[in-house]
Design a protein that fits this description.
With 67 residues, this protein is mainly alpha-helical. The chain has helices spanning 2-20, 27-43, 48-60.
């Protein structure tokens, strides 16, 4: 009886996903929000002071040795 209930539940969930055309189901909203947050983060302006510090770090690091 447990297996039959599990099969019915799994079948209904599969039909809901297929009908909506969204393979991730409720997780797709989480994915959209994460992508939106990432896009906003990447497009943010880098403060001048931070860019200067990165430049200083690059100049002080030794160049990698070539073989």
């Amino acid at each position: 009886m447990k297996n039959m209930t599990k099969d019915i539940t799994a079948g209904a969930a599969g039909r809901r996903r297929a009908a909506s055309g969204d393979p991730l189901g409720p997780n797709s909203e989480i994915g959209r929000k994460l992508k939106q947050y990432y896009d906003e983060l990447v497009s943010d302006h880098v403060p001048d002071r931070f860019a200067q510090l990165l430049s200083q770090l690059e100049r002080t690091e030794p160049a990698p040795k070539k073989d």
